[in-house]
Amino acid sequence: MQRIAVxxxxxxxxxxxxxxxxxxxxTALWRLAATTLPxxxxxxxGTAAVFWNPAQIEDGARxxxxxxxxxxxxxxxxxxxxxxxRVRAGAVGQIGFVxxxxxxxxxxxTGDSPDPIGSAVPAYTSALGVTWSRPVAGTAIxxxxxxxxxxxxASRVTRWTLDVGVSRSIAPGxxxxxxxxxxSALSASDPAQDVYAGVEYRLWQGPLWGDHAVVRGRYGLAxxxxxxxxxxxxxxFELGRVLALDVxxxxxxxxxxxxxxxxxxxxxxxxxxRVTLARDAGVNQLGSAYxxxxxxxxx
Length: 299
Fold this sequence. Notes:
By secondary structure, the protein is mainly beta. Helix content is about 10%, strand content about 55%. It has one domain: Porin (Beta Barrel). Strands 1-2-3-6-7-8-9-10-11-12-13-14-15-16 form a 14-stranded antiparallel beta barrel. Strands 4-5 form a two-stranded antiparallel ribbon. The chain is globular, with a radius of gyration of 19 Å.
């Protein structure tokens, strides 16, 4: 959220041929969508979570469908969606497709006065990816080949990315994960891409209210993007296979100042469906961003 003003200034300053800057602006839009993640992106799980880390752990489902909607406050005017499908492919592992779109609304042309003239200014980024994952020697590995389009008014740039991810339990109750995000250049300071890492540890487990409960602690890191790293600390609570609560606080790096951003989410499983509701707490009195998602699993 601290990068919103920088993003808008960058969008306004992009000349028609500046593809690199426009790609970075598209990635910044996806970082806005990620503000509702109450856990480190590297540790995210679920059908649509292949967008953040393609190394998803096999849960026995033959087919998985997932869709998420994201809405930021009116002061920002960004909204988006993620949709994914994954199917089991025998010894190959799991393969699937993911599509995402996020854009800014209410951008209008003006002249000598603040009154809008002409049509609205399109400003969005979209991604279409093919994903693969499978367990290898106790480690979940995955990859996503993605095609991206970012547009601002008449300026349009495209690119291909190849991301990889891993997730592994290295001790009872301890899991580590890492992934690249929108990787397209061998650079540790490219604002159009990120590197995610995370560690999760089981702090407590035992019977509670007639079911099995687990409390986990988490730490995550996002870096390799040309400005200060983002650090996220949080915790998760699970009650059987029915209810899960996640909370986290992120210390966001930025091109200038740094800030803190809390987020929380709840997941409820009803039969083959899992419903997710999440929001960040908002910063600078701009209001909160929300995310609503539904996962369906068919065995």
